[in-house]
## 1
Amino acid sequence: MSVRLVRWVCTAAVAGVLLAPGPADAVPEPGGEKSVAELLTDLQALYQEAEEATETYNATEEELKERRKEAEALAKKLATARGSLHSSRVAAGRLAREQYQGRSEISPYVRLLLARDPEHALDQGRVILRAAKKQEATVDRLVGDEKKADGLATEARAALDRQMGLAERQKKDRDAVQKRLKDVEELLASLTADQLAELARLEDAGMAKAQRSFMASGALSSVGRSPSRVGDAALSYAVRQIGKPYVWGAEGPKAFDCSGLTSQAWAHAGQVIPRTSQEQWATLPRVPLSELRPGDLVVYFPKATHVAMYLGDGMVVQAPRPGARVKVSPIAANPLLGAVRPDPGAGPMTGYRAPELPAGALDGGDTGYAAAGAPGDE
């Protein structure tokens, strides 16, 4: 029997009610150690820890990309500075040889001061002065180039050290994700068929109840809104990715994680937004849920570790969790934190038509984990 993948209970309040152990819902493990409701709570915690670790990994990856660019730019500047320094040293060496051989303009200057023709001496003096200034500039340029090259070399070494430190941190972040996902895999593998069926029943009931409660609360406006033209393009891109697998750290084109999908959707629409859900929440303008329009980003969990794109009518497009695929889900599929709008200054488009959804857009679990094992590096 294949493992039926676990979906999150939607809100903390609903989860607290649905997951409370009780005689009707409790199917104890062998030995009576934990009820299925408690196992579901454990799985939810592991999934959330995995997604937090994934977003930390993504943030480190983005910072590492910036440090690589910095190191490359410094390397180019250093190469240019060393080329200029070489030229200055050649010029300075030529100057030294001329002075040693008596061919510089400094020694004749003394003779010209003793010349019988003062006017001729004055004209020649101007020429000599210009030559002396040129020699002085050569020396000054050499000194300046040496200082610049030394400074850039120091910066380049520091940038390389920062890059190496981030690469090491990235490895630790990657290991943390894989450890959390391995824990999920082991827990799922330990469950019996009855426990898995009960888990599925609990999550289905929890999600349906949370969505009904949210929609009945009036938090969403009953008036449909149109996206901006850029928001429409971003949403259309997200819809075209439906069916592609969730892979942590992935940002397309064959697989996505949650913020990889949203950031790439807006990038393909022509607007760059931060890579991670936490940065999207921290930097993009907030918008009340009552004013949501298609293309807005809906952010979940207290630490902003999950994000989806609003489709309209209380539904979102999202890359749910490892083991699942990009799909359409109820907006209350996870505990809501709030929403942000990448293009707050853009007005709604006219003549908006919602993108046509592919067959099976709502099929499949909203969270899950493939039984084959922890994913490799992406």
## 2
Amino acid sequence: MLTRTVYVVSTDIAWSNLVIAGLSHSFKAYTFFTENTVDNLWNLNNDDIVIYDRSTLGNPSIHLLSPMSRSGGWILANASKQDLEGAQGLISLGWCGILESDFTLELLHKALRMVASGQLWFSREAMSYSLRNIIRGQTHSSCSMEVLGTKFELSHKEQKVFMYLVQGYSNKEIALQLNVSLSTVKTHVSNILSKTGKQSRAQLSSLMME
């Protein structure tokens, strides 16, 4: 029987314990660990799975989190409506699944089983948003934010803004997420476009294929 390691990352210990208690009955061969930060989750095995609690840790873009550069299968739990709309950007960054906050505990068993089998878990709504964005000319990613940041000499703040842009956030929404002024965000966006040589924010996702 295949054994796997599953990391449940949340600052809510009660929630983490509830998740593990529920999953351990169905996944008896799996080993579960709790973490309150993603800081130590680097160079994971491909079979490892991470369940990220968005409700307590916030948008992963705040942490410049790019699962593709960390390996393993990552599931965004307790996701928001905005996350669903930015599903394509999350997929491009290496996320394997998104679970809406209202359905996380209900669907986590199925999502974990799918991700463990090498498949993706996204709702029809999330995939619809993603496909519409692809049709509009955006592409999937195969490059980590760390590589892009180095390649185009993006500052730490510019990398954070870039992560939000890829997920489809507006300038106003980015300003609220980062708690900065709208003019500051506009300046960062302008710098990002200038440094990357792109004409519009819609073209930025293509950088992650180059």
